[in-house]
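Why do we care about 3D structure at all? Because function follows from shape, and shape follows, mostly, from sequence. That is the central idea of this module. The next example makes it concrete: a single protein chain, its amino acid sequence, and then its structure expressed as tokens.
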Amino acid sequence: MRKKRKRQEMMNRADDPKPAKPERTQIMTTKEIARYLGVHEMTVYRWLKKGILPGFKIGGRWRSKKDVLDAHLIKRIETKP
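And the structure:
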């Protein structure tokens, strides 16, 4: 009897739609951004400080979300004359 109930509970769970997990965005360090863009790390620091690249500080260190960075770069490429 117990096995039958457990089996039924498992089948019911399999039928229930599970909520989708939110996509995790990769947070990149300045070194990773530099490697990704093919520039020196100091260039990345300057661009972040001037607002040329989107970024934020965590504990005094610059970071950027990869999807935000990609969207920003695509926008800049598309708006160039």
